[in-house]
Design brief:
Elements: E1 2-4, H1 8-19, E2 25-28, E3 40-42, E4 55-59, E5 62-64, E6 68-70, E7 75-78, H2 80-86, E8 93-96, E9 99-103, E10 106-109, E11 114-116, E12 120-122, E13 134-143, E14 150-153, E15 168-175, E16 178-188, H3 194-207, E17 218-224, H4 250-261, H5 269-287, H6 293-301, H7 305-313, H8 318-331, H9 334-344
Length: 351
């Protein structure tokens, strides 16, 4: 097997393939580059083989639309360095090179070398494009007494005008008395730039009695939400393992690494149809006016916990995902229903 790309998805796949005793070659232009992003997942999404030591913190988060909601589901934050270290590559031939072409069972490298294997998996991720919706975020790490994890906080204390594209605050413990405060544009085409998110974050933190000194560790996030297609031979974001409406992908890649390493598809028809529904959910988020976003998430977090879980994590559970989305539509405020219906059908919102 040849694995092209050693980000979280590619490294997880190469690791599990090697553990199974397969002959693996991995190609990446910077295979020893350390990961710096913060990754988190719902605990029930993670595979059993993952080492417990890769988890830095476990919590029961809140969510805010216009009011607070307790989420009855454990949320885990990775120790990013420990996660990377745990995905060892025993007996894997790692090549420092750039893939320029993939053709069935052949891979051409920038160096001119051509590799051949029975299976080639492209895990190089998605390229950014102005045509693709993106998620952006700007965060700072502060040393604080342990504070409540808040999955999404859509309260309006970030200084944004009512008609500006909205953003929410993500607050999560990283272990060791450190908290990440991250202002996030969930989805935008174009997404809110980092400089504007920084202004909003600092304004919001001042409103809550916290000051950013300028010496803190900073995290910047920017990645496409669109462009991945469900297909075998492509793994990770480009293979549509990222959730189009939330951006979460690492837990899915970890969970899918074993079946893909064994040669099984992770795209039964149910998963393909769920992906189609989730893509409609992204269109709905992009279509809603800024003022309606907090109320929309009030409605989402009022859903029964199994339906919330189905939409966020049930990538093959077509019935429950469809039920979650129809219930959300039915319970949404009347002004939002027409916009959601048109967006789901791929029509202009008309608002």
């Amino acid at each position: 097997m040849i694995v092209c790309g050693l980000g979280p998805a590619g490294r997880a796949l190469a690791h599990r393939a090697a553990v199974r005793g397969l002959t693996v070659t991995a190609v990446d232009p910077a295979p020893t580059r350390r990961w710096s992003a913060t990754y988190a997942a719902w605990a029930d999404e993670l595979p059993d083989w993952l080492a417990p030591t890769v988890i830095a913190a476990t919590t029961q988060p809140l969510a805010w639309g216009t009011r607070p909601f307790a989420i009855s589901r454990s949320y885990q934050v990775f120790d990013t360095g420990a996660l990377q270290n745990s995905l060892t590559l025993p007996e894997v031939e790692v090549l420092t090179d750039r893939v320029t072409e993939i053709d069935r069972q052949h891979v051409r490298l920038h160096s001119g070398r051509v590799l051949t294997a029975d299976r080639v998996v492209d895990a190089r991720g998605l390229a950014r494009s102005a045509r693709r919706a993106e998620q952006t975020a700007y965060g700072v790490v502060l040393h604080r007494d342990r504070e409540q994890t808040v999955f999404m906080d859509w309260r309006s204390d970030n200084g944004a005008a009512a008609d500006e594209p909205p953003s929410f605050l993500y607050t999560v413990g990283l272990g060791g008395g450190r908290m990440l405060y991250e202002e996030t544009c969930l989805a935008g085409r174009p997404a809110i730039p980092a400089a504007r998110l920084r202004q909003r974050l600092e304004f919001r933190l001042r409103q809550r009695g916290m000051t950013v000194q300028g010496t803190e560790t900073v995290e910047r996030v920017r990645f496409p939400l669109e462009g991945g297609r469900p297909r075998d031979g492509v793994f990770g974001a480009a293979g549509a393992l990222g959730h189009p409406a939330t951006g979460y992908s690492v837990a899915t890649a970890l969970a899918c690494a074993d079946p893909v390493a064994s040669g099984r598809t992770v795209w039964p028809m149910s998963a393909r149809l769920v992906h189609t529904l989730r893509t409609a959910g992204l269109r709905a988020l992009l279509a809603l006016p800024p003022q309606q976003i907090p109320q929309f998430f009030d409605t989402f977090f009022e859903l029964p916990a199994p339906l919330q879980r189905a939409y966020l994590s049930g990538r093959t559970d077509l019935r429950a995902t469809a039920t979650a989305m129809t219930t959300l539509f039915r319970e949404a405020p009347p002004p939002a229903r027409r916009i959601l219906a048109r967006a789901a059908m791929g029509l202009p919102s008309g608002h």
